[in-house]
Design brief:
With 246 residues, this protein is of the alpha/beta class. The protein contains eight helices and seven strands. It starts with a strand and ends with a helix.
């Protein structure tokens, strides 16, 4: 089996690559930076995991198209890469103190272009290369705003991404395809965006390794997850609109 994972040079993406690789899956490390991507390849190779670097920048469609031309077949496409907000030198990438009133149209546009349009271009470009029973897994988040979690640009982009996944899933079902697409919400995960706070909030924040293993298990199991949005506890969101309204 072969898996392409975007944003696989660090964090959740690298943890997914490790977990899949330990199960015998060949890994394509998708990353914007060749140096960071090649470093991830070295770490995986040192563990006996076959891996190679593929330049993928969700904000540069040429990199996506070039990669799709070079890759013959995929069994798994893991859409992990994304941004939480438009980048600003004077603010953290994930600013939890930023209110809905603080977001500009440019913030929304940049985040949607990467997380929604970039992921859409990945799916369109690699769908012809996906094996007959291949799977597309989108790493996503809950979209209901709460007092401690309501990053407008990030949640909006992921809501759009989730709707896209459900639409593709419907087409797979209607055409009798054995391919699957589904979303996984790994919950709070310790990454560089939150200072690697694993174990915080009474254990709610899990390690990247725990999240990677959870996602890999879902990607490799024999269940039909087509169209599902799966929460960090394994439960399936059965009423997406109810999640929006709370």
């Amino acid at each position: 089996m072969k898996a392409l994972i975007t944003g696989a040079n660090k964090g959740i993406g690298f943890a997914i690559a490790e977990a899949l690789g330990k199960s015998g899956v060949g890994i394509l490390v998708g990353a914007r930076s060749e140096s960071h991507g090649q470093e991830a390849v070295k770490k995986l190779s040192a563990q006996g995991i076959p891996a190679s670097f593929v330049k993928i920048d969700l904000n540069d469609f040429d990199t996506i198209h070039n990669a799709a031309e070079e890759i013959d077949q995929l069994d798994l496409l893991i859409n992990n890469a994304g941004i939480p907000d438009s980048h600003k030198a004077d603010r953290p990438d994930l600013d939890t103190k930023k209110t809905a009133f603080d977001y500009t149209t440019d913030d929304l546009r940049e985040t949607l272009e990467v997380n929604f349009l970039g992921t859409h271009e990945m799916i369109r470009s690699f769908l012809p290369k996906l094996a007959a029973n291949g799977k597309i897994v989108n790493i996503t988040i809950p979209i209901q705003p709460t007092n401690h979690w309501h990053p407008l640009a990030y949640q909006t982009s992921k809501a759009a991404q989730n709707v896209m996944a459900m639409n593709y899933a419907l087409e797979f079902k209607n055409t009798g395809s054995s391919k699957q697409i589904f979303g996984v919400m790994p919950g709070g995960v310790a990454t560089d965006l939150n200072g690697h706070t694993a174990g915080a909030m009474d254990g709610y924040i899990k390690s990247a390794e725990e999240a990677g293993e959870f996602i890999a298990q879902l990607a490799l199991d024999t269940e039909n997850h087509n169209g599902q949005m799966i929460q960090h506890d394994g439960k399936i969101v059965t009423d997406y609109e109810a999640q929006i309204h709370g």
